User: Fold YtoQ family protein from Halomonas organivorans.
Amino acid sequence: MSFTVYLSGEIHTDWREEIQRGARDAGLDIAFTAPVTDHDASDAAGDHLGPQSEGYWRDHKSSKVNAIRTKTLIEQSDLVVVRFGDKYKQWNAAFDAGYCAALGKPYVTLHSEEIVHPLKEVDAAAMAWATSPAQVVEILRYVLRA
Assistant:
């Protein structure tokens, strides 16, 4: 069996690379996709559509351009991993999880125990909650090889 896995969420650590490396080392047939993880490039995604005098409109245009990629890749995936880091509030990751829930798309959350309470509704709709990239790899191994 092969899978496409979309890796959503936090962009400040190497969790994506850890999961990809673990899946590769386990010999799993997985194609990984992700949002644009270059923060400046993501913020500027709509800049070519013309200048705006207010930050809201710059963010609005860029979020819509970024959503083309995000929606398409989530819809094409077999599974989504949604990572919530401890340092920043990832509202976009919560939105991606909600989008998955609305689509009936299976997703796994990845975060520490310290933020279980604020993510209780997000976790309630998830198929699993992991605290490490290694646990995500084990979920993938089971799903693809069981």
Observations:
- Strands lie at 3-9, 30-33, 79-83, 107-110, 128-130.
- The mean pLDDT is 94.
- Residues 55-76 form the longest helix (22 residues).
